[in-house]
Fold this protein.
Amino acid sequence: MRTTFSFCWLLSVLLLTGCGHGSSGEQFSAGFAADSLTNVRRVYQPRRGRLFDRHDSLLVADRATGWVSLPPRPLFDSAAFNRLLGWPAGAVQARLAAARRAGLPAQLALNQPETDTLRRHIRAWPGLRVWRQRARAYATSAAGSVLGYRAAEAGPFLGQARTLARGLFFRLRNGGTEAYYNDLLAGRRGAYHPRLDPRGHAHGSWAADTAYRAGQDLHLSLDLPLQAYAERLLGERKGYVVALEPGTGEILACVSAPTYDAALLTAVGAAGRRRAVLENPDRPLLNRPALLANPPGSVFKLVNAAVALQLGAIRPTASFRCDQSLLPCAHEHPRARNLTQALKYSCNPYFYRVLQAVVNQAPKLAVDSVAGPADLTGPTVGTAYDTVAARHARLAEWRRLARSFGLDTLLGVDVPREMPGLLPSPAYYDRARGRRGWTFRSIYSLSIGQGEINLTGLQTANVLACVANRGWFYPPHFVRGIGRGGPLPRFLVKHKTLVDSVHFAALIPGLVAALGPGGTAEQASLADAGITVAGKTGTVQNDEGEDHTTFAGFAPATRPRIVVAVYLENAGFGGLSAAPCAALLMEKYLRGKIAKRRKKWEYWLRCGNLSARRR
């Protein structure tokens, strides 16, 4: 018996591989005529890949969902249908109307109890067809802007967005990871076309086969507890938080606030809630860290200082008087006698002089000063060296070095429609003001990260990764593993800035001092927890209301494990809101908990800032 079975199995294999006399399909040693063979098409649908966080917690997976297709309206008793499924009066009509507006067929999704109920009574509804198919199910309500949605399931949402958002439709569409990696998640359907004899044995193929490829699971770099904590911390504020691992570029948390639940965009019967989100003036669907490019404020002083050091325009010991006639300072502080103190106090006139030394290249500004009465100031400084051609060349060189931080270009983050930001070039000012129509005095706002400079949240975090790594970065990314492999190859390519590592090292003492006594971010110190934080505060001027606040930093300062960039709209001074927010996230990630004395910060930050401590 076993010998006969083995022989038949071997014969089938030979026929499938084209061996033997029967492979042509005209005659067969088994005795079957060609006209007795049946052409069969077998299709294998791949399971869509799942999404996990960095701790292998399930985030998104497929789940079987029931569907019903409805007959034409004249033959359908919608009132009885609503009663059968326990729906309120008018529910089925409202869902069908939403489907029609989105250009979808007359089909409704059902949950498991509704599917079971309809199947039990299907004989009473001869015009209905009930079936099951797999749909995406979310295991978390966090990270909506990161996870995104499967486009095939988001038809009702996209239809509403086209109608309600109009000009903003392009910016509000954010398929997230689901859309960016759709081809890998979906896999590829396999279609096989064997010719079978009456016994079920295959004799070659009657058509070309399509190779099957399983959907790949994605392992995200997100730390789900940190992501959820960051979302709770921001509450109903407007702004963003980006936290990443500087040594790898892996994004640990990415919050666009106000937030939303990704499941809402594909949920059944959620048209009303989606409409409320689409019409919300705070635009919760806008992916702020990737799509909103804003002036970075004083955080950009780090880039200007690094470029000036590289070009030899200043040295770390350069001292400039806090001359309020050049540029007002946000707060009173002692004179900055070196770069470390300038970063600690975030002295605006100091950095005015720093960028002036780059653009005008005045020798007096490049001199190392010593403690004493000498002031490197004066209305005529650099004017003898400020020619139109030289000014163009020096601003172009400033921009070339600054772009190497990943600015004014796409970082290549694995998210749809990333924005490149802007670093103005000489040509930019030539078009706006004429070749001879601009001087350093008319573009000095660049020295404090305002004016025409625009950075996204992802770029701001990447700048701090460059500083933390002393001059290099890996492109930020959300997916650290595809299937059993690593991320996309481009995320393993190290990018080096055009600034030497020694100049980045010169910035660190000032960033640490900013979190120390008298520094702009003194309120956010984690020294009591044994964590040395390095960071820079920023306040972005806002002509339409209260100023925006920023902070970007990393911890621990010596061997950084986390970079955090925070941008809060209409939140005032950075040291009293953005910096404490970042400090809490650093402590949560590095220690797994928040010290009892800082638990009050969580409430203060959701409701205002730490200035409440002083009342």
Notes: Residues 427 and 433 are 10 Å apart (CA to CA). The longest helix spans residues 388-403. The mean pLDDT is 85.
